[in-house]
# Entry
Amino acid sequence: MKKIEHAALTESGLATRFGPNWPGRRCGAKTRQGAPCQNPAIKNRARCKLHGGRSTGPRTAEGKARVVAANTKHGRRSAAHVSRVRFINAELRRITKALKAEEYIP
Ligand SMILES: [Zn+2]
# Structure
């Protein structure tokens, strides 16, 4: 039976292992404890996955519109549709009231 060299295995992953002596880039965001975040930063970014390292959403109007379109099911509750229905109902009430005043309808 081959002897396992624990020391060599311990050394092998030292460069990529997270820990107090990990050489990679840390997040450094201020945590609720007040200490800097010790999570590894996302590649090519300054912060970790919890502190804005991942995408924080679309910036441009075009990108925001794309997200809205992707998350809209039917639009019956959208602000534009609701305001249009309110305008139509108000117009119907106004017409009905005028017709009643002129005694065209009871
Ligand atoms: Zn962080």
Summary: Residues 23-55 form one domain. The pocket of zinc ion is lined by residues 27, 29, 37, 39, 47-48, 50-51 (CB under 6 Å).
